[in-house]
């Protein structure tokens, strides 16, 4: 069995859930991490994914522990980053997880920095002389970068090693899956229509990948109180810089139509984004273009890690607002605890 170290909440005994059949629906970071930790705990896991929601695959994988004012998400992010660092180059292949310094700045009209930043490793205030134009304060914090596309590939290989069965299939109703003791709903935004969950308030985001210029490193973000708070994430493992930060609220119905249409990229927003980020980082203005991707953030009124009220077999793990890569290991550990508690009942 793979050893995940002494991280709290991570199952290390293959007998904990020995032989318990569990289905996980959703192949994003949360679903794949959950399948991994369940299998490590001895469960017989089947992972269902139809590939229709691609947010975990395209995002930049920035692990910034307090990137949300929601205390629950911030806590999950902190735990997630700790788990990534403990598993780096041991459970996860070399290069999937890298440490970076993140420089984050904000304008006067932007929301204040979340509480708790001063507790992060390496935290310091940015010298006022180093602030960009129109920025009023900035911080430099320790963070991790975990490219979603590399992470999902690495987890898929670990699944094979642990005997997880992968099924490329659309599941119209996860509760209909038979012959399992538990079903984990890790479908993200799809929960809005699978379970008629109207608490989702999705937003569309676009990222542009550029070839990383020589010497470029780090993570940079500016909250300039516009509908585009640009960021640039250097990914050593892919050789790319991921530029993003756009937010376009959409209805659940619009999001589903976009998914059904094949998740087409928003090229116009991508062009706007490149122009915006170049005003902060001129070095990216002439960087080689790779591609543009668009995804839907599964934002929700609150996160949901809980057993279904009507079907005790179903455990929901949704509503992480596009931070799935960062929080996934911690969420998965909580799901394993819920499954174990259900077995004891």
Describe this structure in words.
This protein is an alpha/beta fold and 345 residues long. It has a single domain, classed as FAD/NAD(P)-binding domain. The chain has eight helices and 16 strands. Helix 1 runs parallel beside helix 4, helix 1 crosses helix 8 (324-344) and helix 3 packs across helix 8. The longest helix has 21 residues, at 324-344. Mean pLDDT is 90; it is low at 5-12. It holds the Pfam family DAO.
Supply the CATH class. Alpha Beta
> Measured on Cα atoms, how large is the radius of gyration?
20 Å
Helix content: 25-40%
Count of runs of 4 or more consecutive helical residues: 8
Number of strands: 16
Distance linking N and C termini: 26 Å
Shape: globular
Strand content of the residues, in percent? 25-35%
Report the major sheet.
10 strands, mixed
The secondary-structure class comes to alpha/beta
| Average pLDDT score | 90
Name the helix and strand elements from N-terminus to C-terminus, one letter apiece: EHEHEHEEEHEEHEEEEEHHEEEH
CATH superfamily: FAD/NAD(P)-binding domain
Taken together, the total number of domains comes to 1
Q: Fill in the CATH topology.
A: FAD/NAD(P)-binding domain
The name of the CATH architecture is 3-Layer(bba) Sandwich
Stretches where pLDDT falls below 50 for ≥5 residues?
A: 5-12
Family: Belongs to the DAMOX/DASOX family.
Pfam family, one: DAO
GO cellular component, one term: cytoplasm
GO molecular function, one term: D-amino-acid oxidase activity
């Amino acid at each position: 069995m793979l050893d995940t170290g002494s991280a709290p909440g991570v199952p290390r005994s293959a007998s904990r859930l020995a032989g318990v059949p569990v289905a996980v629906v959703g192949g994003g970071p949360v679903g794949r991490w959950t399948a991994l930790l369940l299998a490590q705990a001895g469960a017989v896991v089947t992972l269902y994914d139809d590939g229709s929601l691609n947010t975990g695959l395209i995002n930049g994988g920035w692990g910034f522990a307090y990137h949300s004012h929601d205390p629950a998400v911030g806590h999950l992010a902190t735990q997630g980053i700790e788990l990534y660092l403990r598993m780096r180059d041991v459970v996860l292949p070399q290069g999937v997880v890298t440490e970076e310094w993140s420089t984050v700045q904000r304008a006067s009209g932007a929301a204040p920095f979340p509480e708790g930043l001063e507790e992060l490793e390496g935290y310091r205030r940015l010298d006022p002389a180093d602030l960009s134009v129109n920025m009023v304060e900035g911080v430099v914090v320790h963070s991790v970068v975990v490219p979603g596309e590399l992470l999902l590939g690495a987890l898929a290989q670990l699944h094979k090693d642990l005997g997880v069965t992968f099924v490329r299939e659309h599941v119209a109703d996860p509760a209909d899956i038979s012959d399992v003791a538990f079903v984990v709903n890790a479908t993200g935004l799809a929960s809005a229509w699978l379970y008629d969950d109207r608490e989702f308030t999705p937003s569309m985001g676009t990222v542009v990948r550029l070839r990383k210029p020589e010497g470029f490193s780090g993570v940079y973000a500016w909250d300039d109180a516009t509908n585009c708070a640009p960021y640039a994430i250097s990914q050593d493992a892919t050789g790319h810089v991921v530029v993003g930060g756009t937010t376009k609220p959409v209805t659940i119905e619009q999001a589903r139509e976009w998914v059904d249409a094949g998740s087409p990229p928003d090229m116009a927003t991508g062009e706007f984004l490149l122009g915006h980020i170049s005003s902060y980082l001129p070095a990216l203005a002439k960087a080689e273009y790779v591609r543009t991707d668009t995804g839907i953030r599964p934002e929700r009124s609150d996160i949901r890690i809980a057993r279904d009220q009507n079907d005790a077999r179903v455990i929901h793990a949704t509503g992480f607002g596009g931070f799935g890569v960062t929080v996934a290991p911690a969420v998965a550990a909580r799901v394993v605890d819920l499954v174990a508690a259900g077995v004891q009942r």
